[in-house]
Amino acid sequence: MNRIIEQIALLKENHRRPLCAYIYDMEHLSEHVSRRVRTLPPSCRLFYAIKANSEEEILRALLPVVEGFEVASLGEVKKVRAVSRDIPIIFGGPGKTDEEIEGAMDNRVSLIHAESADEVRRIAWIAAQRGKVMPILLRVNLQGPLPDATLAMAGRPTQFGIDESQIPDAIRLAQSLDSVKLEGFHFHSLSNNLDAEKHVRLVQYYCERTAAWIEEFGLEDISYLNAGGGIGVNYAEPEAQFDWDLLVERLGPALKEKCPPNVTVLFECGRYVAASCGYYAAEVLDIKQNHGKNYVILRGGTHHFRLPVSWQMSHPFRVVPVERWDYPFPRRELNDAEITVVGQLCTPKDVLAKDVPVSGVRVGDVILFLLAGAYGWAISHHDFLSHPHPDHIYL
Ligand SMILES: Cc1ncc(COP(=O)(O)O)c(C=O)c1O
User: Fold this and answer.
1) What pLDDT, in 10s, does the model give residues 230-275?
2) Could you tell me the distance, in angstroms and rounded to a whole number, from the CA of residue 337 to the centre of ligand 1?
3) Cα(190) to centroid of ligand 1, in Å?
4) Among residues 235, 269, 303, which one ends one of the domains?
């Protein structure tokens, strides 16, 4: 954090234009992820789901650390291949086109997650035309109930995966097709789970389901169980983050007990990998009171950082004081006040934090949003209103 604040001071010394930037602590990214990889049980591998943040610098920093990358489109396949010819790629997501399946094969994707029986047929048909056998995992939409989390992709009706009740038919189908090799099962069921014990129980449950299908269908040669992503980031209480040490402490024995032999457990985390290295910094352009509320207006907004509005939450931030003041009139300021932090867009939905108490904020200070490295810039509608993009600074 201190490095980020120093960087803001430096930027403000050198530039008159209002500051607006994503700033990444690349050292933190490498250390954070290396430690996670090092402490995983031996039968586990960590992939990075690049949808969380597919900036080239982030991918390059993670290349030597993670086992591979999880992608959800041909565009993402190409982003990965632009930084590495050979790092393993696993490719998932509903509604794959033939072009994407062909592109995945051309780009030596290691595994495709099949999201429906017809997708299994199409993958097999395309592989057969190339004289190839494509390794696949069947993505399962479990019956549930599953633990609570901010987003649930399975355990309830969604467009994701193959309904658990249809998995036996999908296994028989894959077994009947020479040009696909069923390598296991994929269970990305939720996003932003903050409870490590629940996460262990979830992975254990995936192991039990996998073991049952192995036994029923004689799948002794499958290699993978993909437990998906979904490890959470606590935006409401940034000091109380997901208990990784507890996860790995419990996971080892849980896998020994429940994981079928010779099955490698894959994790494909996005948020948990990238969130904590990224900051969105935006300068206060104006302060005003409307209808009894204090509005702090930033150079920037939800077109750069859509996460808080998409989750209807106040994103955690701190005020970074900036002493520079170039105008001949006094600075407007608020002290011991509740503020609503908004952007420059023409919609009342352009809110990043609502009614948050601060000890002080002035026009010209910088609001620094924490935990902004995942699903920040990547999910935002950058060109709405055609404001300039933020700078992207990789420390
Ligand atoms: C298939 C799949 N895997 C992994 C992820 C990454 O999830 P998270 O960022 O919650 O770890 C996602 C996110 O939507 C996903 O759809």
Assistant:
1) 999 999 999 999 999 999 999 999 999 999 999 999 999 999 999 9
2) 38
3) 8
4) 269
13-22 pLDDT tens trace: 988 899 999 9
What whole-number distance in Å separates Cα of residue 199 and Cα of residue 108? 31
Atom of ligand 1 nearest to the CA of 52: 9
Look up tokens 């989750």; give the residue.
311
Residue 358 lies in a domain: yes
Question: What integer best gives the mean pLDDT of the chain?
Answer: 96
Residue 223 lies in a domain: yes
- pTM for the structure as a whole: 0.96
The values of phi and psi at residue 391, to 5°, are -70, 155
In tens, the pLDDT along 118-160 reads: 999 999 999 999 999 999 999 999 987 776 666 677 777 889 9
Q: Which residues contact 14 (CB under 8 A, 6 or more apart)?
A: none
252 and 282 part of one domain: no
Q: Ligand 1 pocket: which residues have CB below 6 Å?
A: 49, 51-52, 70, 92, 188, 191, 228-231, 268-272
Task: Please tell me whether residues 210 and 115 are part of one structural domain.
Answer: yes
**Is 207 labeled as catalytic in the residue annotation?**
no
Does 215 lie in the same domain as 281? no
Between CA 388 and CA 139 the distance in angstroms is 40
Substitution site in 47, 51, 160, 269 for ligand 1 pocket (most atoms within 8 Å of beta carbon): 51
Q: Which of 20, 207, 277, 346 is catalytic?
A: 346
The predicted structure's pLDDT at residue 203: 95
Which of 252, 269, 286 lies at the terminal end of a domain, its last residue?
A: 269
Residue 253 CA to ligand 1 center (angstroms) comes to 25
Atom of ligand 1 nearest to the CA of 113: 1
Distance of alpha carbon 370 from alpha carbon 22, whole angstroms? 10
Bridging pattern class, strands 89-91 and 134-141: unpaired
